[in-house]
Amino acid sequence: MDYLFLIDILCLFCIIRKVEKTSFWDKSNKEKTIMNKKLMTMLVACALSVSALSTTAVFAEDAVVTGETPAVTETTTTPETKPETTPVAYEPEITLTTPKWTGDSDIVFEVDAKGGAVYPQEMYVYGADDAAMPIISVPSKVEVNEEGKGKVTFTNDALKNATTWDDTFTNQISVDWTKYSKIEFAFAFELNGQDKYKSMYVETSVKAPAPTVTPTTPAKPTTPAKPTTPTKPAGNKGTTTTTTTKKEAPKTGDTMNVALYASLLLVSALAAVVLTTKKRITE
Q: Which of 60, 81, 188, 232 is the most exposed place for a label (fewest CB within 10 A)?
């Protein structure tokens, strides 16, 4: 496209020369001046057209040779994406308000389920050998608000009426709390599909009840019966019949024969009288 560029240069050169030779302020050559102006205008228009064509041709030729496509700027709207956030780990809280159970109070736990729910689960008791025994069906009272805050209560009566298995795990028996030193309480928390389990331990110290002694009231002594006064018979007026009650002599513990001693005393007395009388006759 070099020839187009040369034509453009030539046209511009002609215009410049024509302008130099023309006097626009010459009144005698007014018509000639008008014709020169028209010619100059046409030459300028021709020069501009040739220049534009040459520029377009050069640009097209460069694009074909290099294989480059003129850059087109497009404005596209990209939807705003929110950054992904990792869900916070679910961490409910539970606190024991009864550190030791002595068998005469309730066991209370304060809970904060962080907007979730709480469910009491299994219970176990541990003895001196630290072996766990399951406790069967101990009801609890759950009092939690919409925020998951509240308390869980195990009443004293429910704990005392708890049952467990015997040594053969075939029969249910009452829990002898004097044999155990601690209780394990398991809790389940749930929030939007997230589950969390926690265990709490409560120390126990239950003493065996003291044996109850029922005091006995001594019996009152019986009052001896009073002697009754006999009534007079209806047919024997003036005759008084007195009935006496023979009183037995108190026993002294001596079992010897009283009649025998009385007989010996009487014989001795008669012998003394006889001897005294005989002595007086002799004198």
A: 81
